[in-house]
Write a structure and sequence with these properties.
The structure is a single chain. Strand 2 and strand 3 form a beta hairpin. Helix content is 49%, strand content 12%. By secondary structure, the chain is an alpha+beta fold. The strands form two sheets. The chain has a six-stranded antiparallel β-sheet with strand order 1-2-3-4-6-5, with helices on one face. A five-stranded mixed β-sheet has the order 7-11-9-10-8.
């Protein structure tokens, strides 16, 4: 046993004059509560040191404390452990739930000379490892200012628009301004986490990781308004700041005018901190700055149609946009008031953000089919831009202005504000329709096997009925429509999607609805069309299973069948 006191401290300091030696050795304290420590090769870092603990079985340990126990230093600790875990002279220890926080030297210590020799042996073992681990850690975590190309080098002298590829570091080094009408940051946990996870895919060396398109409007030298891409850029800037990148990011100097945006920014900062703590950081800041790339479109004007027209060009090298993105720009060009265009763009962006799934279902699926089917027009669902083509502005005679729109599903599409109102009208209609009991039961009972393909077209036809007559006799209409469409299942061995949709078109149900001035005309005509019954099926195959699912569907809804003729047919069929 070696007693710890000021004399021992002075002896150890003389033995290691280039190191800092500190200790607790009050004259009236117990030896078991006394200690001395000597700094490692990182002579200014006292949170990692070699420590002699007093008491009957005094020992020397490598101690890691403070920041060295945080997530950021996990790889640092792991490197020391992996290089020494099989050394019989050492024993790694945990403390208060923290793993790899101390490593004990398994040497007897019976005098001052032996103590110094044990400390020296620990230095010989760990100092080179600590030095290497510290070097690698600094390469990863000690951020440096972006040293790549800064200027966007756009050439807009003779052009209204240009496109270039650039890194995140190049992009955020410029003065990016968020226009007033764009000042709403609304990303929540789902979008932030998805972006964070995608950053894991950024390669370490040389290769680029593309993260979509950014649209800027040049205001003056090195100052640009962010027209599209604000959410990504703000989130990426906040991630860089959390990764200790404390150099200039002009975008972070922008302010949001709504309390809701401020709340979302605060949540973003908190979530990024949690994601970082959970793991995966390292040299992410470096890979983000240099290897994260964008296609950047720069305009001289703020009108979005210039940007989207450029991207929809077949010769463009830009990232392809969705049909809805191109439709937005296509119709914005018909609006000649900048204030109206900005207002419509904001409403559209909100709908794309909040109701994208309903937008796709109501417009790109149900309404699209109805418009095609009523005119008996075949189409290839895999063809390019079919939704964009269907909902583009219809041609007009220049001298005769358009008028008389009533928001019929099959009316001609007027360019401009009418389109945006038309789309919003039908998306809202579908939102209510999809919440109805009949629709939910249809989706639930026919979701298995290939039954869903039939449920899909039945839903389209029922939506057409709902648009004409609301929820009047809606269950009766569902029974009639399902009875007609089911005939294809009963007579066909293979449920091929395009054949089912052709059958739905040729059934002329959409035209029956359109021509009917009352539900009674449609229900009567549709009922007469349903001539093939599932009651005659013999084999226990998928056709029979489909029939049984229809049974379950109408058992749930039978209390809402109100028309006696239809109720009688239901009782006979099922």
């Amino acid at each position: 046993m070696v007693n710890i006191d000021s004399n021992l401290r002075d002896f150890i300091q003389k033995s290691f004059p280039d190191r800092t030696v500190r200790g607790k050795h009050h004259d009236h304290s117990w030896q078991s509560s006394r200690w001395l420590y000597v700094t490692t090769v990182l002579t200014t870092e006292e949170k990692i040191h070699y420590e002699y603990l007093g008491g009957k079985n005094g020992c020397v340990e490598l101690h890691l404390e403070g920041k060295y126990l945080e997530e950021e230093y996990r790889d640092f600790r792991r490197k020391l452990y992996e290089k020494t875990r099989q050394d019989p002279r050492l024993r790694w220890k945990s403390h208060q739930g923290k793993s790899l926080c101390a490593c004990e030297a398994m040497f007897p210590i019976n005098g001052w000379g032996e103590l110094v020799e044990v400390i020296r042996q620990m230095m010989n073992i760990f100092d080179p490892l600590i030095e290497e681990a510290d070097r690698r850690h600094k390469e990863q975590y000690d951020t440096k200012p972006y040293e790549g190309e800064v200027s966007l080098n756009e050439n807009l002298k003779n052009e209204q628009v240009c496109m270039l590829g650039c890194s995140l570091g190049q992009l955020i080094s410029n003065s990016l301004i968020i226009p007033d009408y764009q000042r709403n940051y609304c990303w929540e946990d789902k979008e932030i986490t998805a972006l964070w996870n995608s950053l894991k895919e950024i390669p370490n060396e040389g290769k680029k990781y593309h993260l979509g398109t950014i649209i800027l409007q040049k205001l003056d030298e090195n100052k640009y308004a962010v027209i599209d891409g604000q959410q990504r850029l703000v989130t990426l800037a906040l991630i860089l700041r959390e990764l200790n990148y404390n150099y200039s990011i002009p975008l972070l100097g922008q302010t949001f005018r709504s309390k809701e945006s401020d709340k979302h920014v605060s949540n973003c900062k908190w979530l990024i901190k949690q994601l970082k703590t959970a793991g995966f950081a390292g040299d992410l800041w470096r890979r983000m700055l240099y290897n994260l790339s964008f296609s950047v479109l720069i305009l001289t004007e703020s009108r979005l149609d210039l940007a989207y027209t450029f991207f929809s060009n077949e010769n463009s090298k830009g990232v392809p946009l969705s049909d809805f993105d191109i439709l937005k720009a296509h119709h914005l060009r018909y609006i000649h008031s900048e204030e109206q265009a900005e207002h419509m763009a904001m409403r559209w962006n909100k709908m794309m953000s909040d109701n994208k799934e309903q937008l796709n279902k109501s417009i790109a699926k149900h309404l699209f089919r109805m418009r095609k089917w009523i005119r008996k027009r075949y189409y290839n669902p895999n063809a390019k831009r079919i939704v964009k083509d269907e909902f583009s502005a219809s041609p007009i005679i220049p001298e005769i202005p358009p008028f008389g729109e009533r928001f019929n599903f099959n009316e001609k599409i007027q360019g401009g504000t009418h389109f945006f109102a038309y789309i919003e009208f039908f998306v809202n209609k579908y939102a209510h329709f999809s919440s109805l009991r009949q629709v939910k039961e249809l989706q639930d009972k026919l979701q298995w096997e290939s039954h869903w393909k039939y449920a899909d077209v039945i839903e389209t036809l029922l939506f057409a009925y709902y648009l004409k007559f609301g929820d009047q006799y809606l269950t009766d209409a569902l029974f009639c429509i399902a009875s007609v469409i089911a005939q294809h299942r009963y007579q066909t061995n293979r449920a091929m999607t395009y054949k089912i949709q052709e059958y739905a078109m040729n059934s002329e149900i959409v035209m029956m609805i359109e021509q009917a001035t009352s539900p009674t005309f449609f229900l009567a005509e549709c009922l007469q069309t349903a001539k093939v019954s599932g009651r005659t099926l013999d084999d226990a195959n998928i056709k029979m299973r489909f029939y049984h699912q229809l049974q379950k569907l109408f058992e749930q809804l039978s209390d809402e069948l109100t028309e006696p003729t239809i109720t009688k047919k239901y009782n006979y069929e099922y």
